[in-house]
Amino acid sequence: MKPDSPSGSPAPAPLVSLSDVRMQFGAVRALDGVSLTISPGECVGLIGHNGAGKSTAVNVINGGLTPTGGTVGYRLADGSSASGAAGARAAGIRSVFQELSLCPNLTVAENLRIPQHDLKGWGWRRRATRRIAQALDQIFPGHRIEPGMVVGDLTLAERQMVEIATGFAEASAPAKLVILDEPTSSLDASIARQLLDHVRGFCARGGAVIFISHMLGEVFEVATRIDVMKDGRIIDSRPTSGFTQQGLIDAMGHVASQEAVTAVRENAEERIGEEVLATSEGLSARSGEIVGLAGLAGHGQAEALSRFFMSRSGTMRQASRPEVVFVAGDRGRDGVMPLWSILKNLTLTHLPSLTQKSLVDSIAEKTLGADWKARIGIRTGDMNNPILSLSGGNQQKVLFARALASTAPIVVMDDPMRGVDVGTKREAYEMIRREAASGRTFLWYSTETEEVCQCDRVFVYRNGEISAELTGDQINEENILAASFEMQEHAA
Question: Does domain 258-491 have CATH number 3.40.50.2300?
Fold first, then answer.
C-alpha cells in the first residue's frame, strides 16, 4: 500500500516495481526474492557490503539483466506499464556505473551519442554538444570540461563527471530514475558537494535516484529512504531518519573487528625509521611510515605517484626483487587483466617467485590465492572464475591482495579504497598498520579526507606542486582544505 503524500493526496504511482525478483548465476544466487518500489521524488540509498547484490539489483532495475524469477514493471509517462530493457529506456531509467563506460578515443559529446539513440542525422553533434554542456554546467558549475575534449585526455575525476552528466542529460525520453553507483568515488569533496546538491534538486522536481555509496555520510545527506542488502536480499528498509550511522553498519553486519578503526598513526615514533625515498619535487618517506597525498582531485597526486613508481620499476632485477608495488584506483585502466581469472590477477606480480624452471608452480599459486581470499574476504566460490565476475569492490580487494602479498618494501596506493565497503576498509586499515609496523612504507593518495587523516605525514598538492607538509596533529580536514586552496588565493 502506498503512503499518502504530506499534502494528504495519494502518493504518486511507482516508477519501477520489483516483486520477488530472483537472479541465479550457476550455483551463485545473486538475488533471493527482492521486492521494492521507487516513486517520483524518492532518493533511495541502497547499502550493503561488496557482494551483497546491489550491482545485480540495479542491473535488473535498468533492464540490463532479465531475472530468473519474479517480475519487474515500469510506469510510462502516459500511465501505462511496460517491462524489459525497452520498457526501462522508455520509462527514463538511466544508470551511472562505478566502472566508467566511456569510450576513451571519442570526445565528450560523441560519447553522449552512445546511450542517446535519437542523436543522429544532420546536426547531431551540435545537439550533443548543447546537451552535455548544459548538463555539466547544471551539475558541476565551474568545471573545465569542453564537449570537444577527447575522453582519454581527461582525469579520472573529469571522466566521472562526464559519466554523471550523461546520466542526467536532456534526451528524447527525459530522465525519471537515475541510478548512481559510487558516483563520488573519484571526486574531491567540493565536486561531490555539487553532485549531492543536484541530486536533491532533481528529486525535489519529481525525479528519483538510487544512490549507492560506501560513504555513509553522503547517503544520510541525500537519501529519503535506505534499503539494506545482504546475501541477495533486502534485510531492512525504512526512512533515513529511522537509522543512525552505527545502526546502519550494524544492519549490514560487521565484517571487521572494532580495533580496526584505531588510527594508523598509533605508535608512529616506534615504527618509523630511516628515509627510503626522496623526490626532486619534495615528496619523501621513511621506512614504516604511512605518507598521505591530499588536495583537490586532479592536482598532480596521481602523476607524482606514477613518476615515483616508474623510477623504481621496469628492470629485470626489479621484477624479481621488486622495490615498489602499485595499487591502482582506476582498476579498469591500470589494475585488472579483464580476460584473466581472479587467481591469475592476484598472483600476477608474484610470478618470479612462483616459477621454477620456467614453469609456474600451480600448487603454490593456488595456496597463495586461497590465503589472500580468506584474509581479505574475496567473495567468490572459485578463484578460477573470471575477474569481471566479481563486484567492483571485490575486484579492488584482489588488487590490494596482489600488492600486500609481494615482498616490495614500498607500496604506492592510488585511491585504493575506491568503491570498497566500510567493513573491508577497516580490514585494510588494520593490514596497512600491521605492514607498516613491520617496516613497510606506504604512499597513499585518497580522495577521502578521513583516510588521509590516518597517515603519519601528509603532502597537500595544488596545481601539480606540494603546497603544504602536515604532520601529527596538523593533519586535519581544516588544514588540508586550507592548503588545497592556498596557492590559488596567492595567484589571484
Answer: no
For residue 73, what are the β-bridge partners? Answer: 17
Q: Which fold has domain 16-252?
A: Rossmann fold (3.40.50)
Candidates 180, 161, 183; CA nearest to 44 is 180
CA atoms of 278 and 450, how far apart (whole Å): 25
- According to DSSP, residue 13 is labeled P
- Joined grid coordinates for residue 160: 566521472
Within 8 A by CB and 6+ apart from 411, the residues are 324, 325, 327, 403, 404, 435, 440, 441, 442, 443
Chain segment 295-309, per-residue pLDDT in tens: 866 678 888 888 888
Q: How far apart are CA 391 and CA 14, in angstroms?
A: 28
Specify the higher pLDDT residue, 466 or 9. 466
How do strand 324-327 and strand 290-294 relate by DSSP bridges?
Answer: unpaired
Domain ranges for the chain, please list them.
16-252, 258-491
Provide the pairing of β-strand 359-360 with 355-356: antiparallel
Write out the E strands in 26-138. 28-38, 43-47, 69-75, 81-82, 93-96
Complete edge-to-edge strand list for the sheet that includes strand 457-462:
324-327, 410-414, 441-445, 290-294, 457-462, 465-471
Q: CA–CA separation, 258 vs 427, rounded Å?
A: 10
pLDDT over 60 (residue 6) = no
C-alpha cell at 10: 495519494
Output 474 or 269, whichever has higher pLDDT.
474
CATH fold match for the domains 16-252 and 258-491: yes
The DSSP code sequence of 200-244 is HHHHHTT-EEEEE-S-HHHHHHH-SEEEEEETTEEEEEEEGGG--
DSSP state for residue 19 in the 8-state scheme: E
**What pLDDT is attached to residue 447?**
76
DSSP reduced 3-state for 386 = strand
Determine if the pTM surpasses 0.85.
no
Instruction: Provide the mean pLDDT of the chain.
Output: 83
Per-residue confidence band for 318, with pLDDT thresholds at 50, 70 and 90: low
Q: Which residues contact 303 (CB under 8 A, 6 or more apart)?
A: 464
10 Å CB burial of residue 37 (0-12, 13-18, 19+) is middle
- Residue 233 amino acid letter: R
Residue 489 has a pLDDT of 41
